[in-house]
Write a structure and sequence with these properties.
Order of helices and strands: HHEEEEEEEEEEE
Structural class: mainly beta
Strand order of the largest sheet: 2-1-11-10-7-8
Strand content: 25-35%
Largest sheet: 6 strands, antiparallel
CATH architecture of the domain at 71-179: Sandwich
Protein name: FHA domain-containing protein
CATH topology of the domain at 71-179: Tumour Suppressor Smad4
CATH class of the domain at 71-179: Mainly Beta
Pfam families: FHA
Shape: globular
Number of helices: 2
Keywords: Phosphoprotein
Amino acid sequence: MGGAAAQPARVPAPDGPAGHAAHGGLGDHDGLTVIGADIRRMRTERERPDDSAPVPAGVGASPQRPAAQGLALRLPDGSIEPIVGELVLGRAPAIGRVTGTSIPRPVVIGAGDPDISRTHLRVAVEGGTVVVTDLESRNGTHVVAPGQSPVRLRPTEPTPVLADTVIDLGGGWSVQVVNR
């Protein structure tokens, strides 16, 4: 049959542990979707000091690795906070709550407001993308992407967001991801 390109056949993975191992340990995972565990694993691999692979610009922002150009947070008072390394937002952010090799920079939002957790949200640039993680805040965090309905973040699950996304911390406090 001429003209039609042959498509690779999809072979269902066998059930059980043997099927899991036979497909590189992916199980039902298609290998194309990035999940929170993948982001944490990539972050850990990237931050190893003995890693000889070059790090692309914007990955693992730190004083040695600058953030992706122009990504910042517009804070409730209108000021702009560049996203360099990791930021931890809250009414009294504790940098000890976040694991990793770099020290996050605390950003105070809603000081004294009980609707905002002490350590509420982590914001970082990973692979040129802003990634936000609710740090098991008491009242949760919602993200509102441009033209979309609000979505509540799952606690401790890193979630990528686009520029112009509004991050609602509750109690009338929100920040916005912006290009500078």
